[in-house]
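User: Assemble these into one structure.

Assistant: Restating your components, then the assembled model:
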Amino acid sequence: MSVNIVVPVKYVPDAQKQRTFREDLTVDRSDAILSELDEYPLEAALALREAAPEAEVTIVAVTVGPAAASGAVKKALQMGADAAFHVDDAALAGSDALGTSAALAAAIQHVGEEHGGVDLVLTGMASTDGEMSVVPPMLAERLDFALVTRAGTVEWGEERNGLALTRATADATQTVAVAFPAVVSVTDQANEPRYPNFKAIMAAKKKPSAVLTLADLGVDASTVGRDAAAASVQSATPRPPRAAGVKIQDEGEAGIQLAAYLAEQRLL
Amino acid sequence: MNVLVDLGHTTALRSPDREVLTLARTVAAGGTVSVLTHAPDAAGLAEELGGFDVAVLLAPQDAAPDLSLTDTALLDAALAESGATLVLGPNAAEVTDCFARLAVRHSAAIITDAVGVDADRTVTKSVLAGGYTTTVEPTTELAFVTVAPNAVAAGEAQGGQAPDVKPLAVSASGAAATVTGTQVAPASSRPKLTEARVVVVGGRGVGENFSLVEELADELGAAVGASRAAVDAGWAEHSAQVGQTGVTVSPQLYLCAGVSGAIQHRAGMQTSQTIVAVNKDENAQIFDIADYGVVGDLNKVLPQLIEALRERKG
Ligand SMILES: Cc1cc2nc3c(=O)[nH]c(=O)nc-3n(C[C@H](O)[C@H](O)[C@H](O)COP(=O)(O)OP(=O)(O)OC[C@H]3O[C@@H](n4cnc5c(N)ncnc54)[C@H](O)[C@@H]3O)c2cc1C
Ligand SMILES: Nc1ncnc2c1ncn2[C@@H]1O[C@H](COP(=O)(O)O)[C@@H](O)[C@H]1O
């Protein structure tokens, strides 16, 4: 028995730095990192592998993005993924989620052809730049896999031919059983992602990593990219910064002063 | 324009639902508004929908046996029934999941987290943790749009007739997960975080003594929120987390103590009307956006504030 897991990882601008739009109304990715929310599905995949060595888990990271996005798969390999694919094609520029998910789905099928099938796709709960949470359901739809979004815990199911999960809804916690093949998105509650150590960083350099074009994947270039986008960004305006207001130093009376402020603002 | 509103598994209207219904009524501008609920037994909901100019309430006969698959089929059936070119719903995972799947099936646009939608379907949204406002246009005949909470003022229901309930029968085939158990969170006597007029939030600086934050919240009739650091420490439930991977709040008063104001936290609270922060570090980022900042030890300031509030009440 072997289980093949694909983890789609996105290269995003670092939220700790100033994030801006470029003139073509796409987000500037020159100062980018592996989306922090994609470390959680990676960690979940690594934990599944470590919990059941006999399951013979293979973990493949896949990213769709320009040349710099290779940084995302590199980090994924350092964390412990076994192999990586990077879909890089000029025709993808300006793609919306429909275009991105089409390329990703084709890449996942490609992994399946190379590794004898894909059992599980573990994604982040959202990308930290787009924050749409739509790529996972789109992948389930395109691949005809079962879908579970926002899993808060991820464990093997009985027989190891699926997973046992929990997820939080607005007012309840659900336990969920899913059989492979499945797409599961994982929240930042699921685990504590590891930091790659020196040994892991060195080992990553020897792992297989390949760049694929749309032609390699058999995706028609006219179905992706800016011109094919179903949602077209018309404008992006920086928000005027919120002005800071009054700042007082506590000299023993700040609680009383604050109560007076709240009363004065009619907030009580 | 005909509009379809997907309320997810709603059986009784919550404020995000009323906000979406209000928006639908505005943008439909004479076209019909149809509503879909994924929960069977919709009679009570139909009563509540009277006054939102809803033409028909579509509802399944049975609860879905699976996760997402049957729900998506239901929405697809409702779509055919309604003739809608715009599908709106609250920004909840169960709704977004169905929208995204059908966007693929129908090659249609999907735009999430709208803070506004015009009659020509131009969507306004706030992105990059509130750093930018963008406008996005669907280029397809059909578009799916989820609406951010607290972005649109919910209109009052205006008299009106309860819509007819039309049962939808679907059979979905394909791979799906099954829900094997549901544990409903115990109801809190405090107001709901997303709907509260006042929210009191505690961060890492509060330490073990999180009840101080709860005490202040109760004094103000407020909901209790927490930063991720406070949730990770186990002082508050994850459902109380405010921010990028928690809930977005937009209350009249947001008061926090021991919160530094990281970008991921600000993403979930910066549209609050009045922001008050107590932090002992005068350089904490939260002060950049606070209307009223107190530089001081929360263990001194909060008890004194609670005392002062009690005195005011007399
Ligand atoms: C992908 C991602 C998603 C995230 N999502 C969220 C999210 O949804 N919500 C969220 O909140 N965070 C989120 N975070 C985490 C975020 O980056 C911060 O780490 C977190 O918000 C910090 O919480 P804090 O302000 O309570 O703690 P800290 O940053 O540690 O700040 C504690 C503050 O308390 C002050 N303090 C300490 N003692 C006292 C005292 N006695 N009196 C007064 N002040 C005191 C300190 O001066 C300090 O400013 C996310 C991070 C990532 C990477
Ligand atoms: N360009 C991309 N390349 C690889 N994975 C992606 C990409 N975009 C989105 N994903 C995956 O889909 C998840 C949700 O993204 P989103 O729908 O953009 O919020 C992310 O956490 C990733 O796992």
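The pocket of flavin-adenine dinucleotide (ligand 1) is lined by residues A 36-37, 128, 188; B 203-205, 227-230, 241-246, 258-260, 262, 264-265, 268, 278-281, 284, 297-299 (CB under 6 Å).
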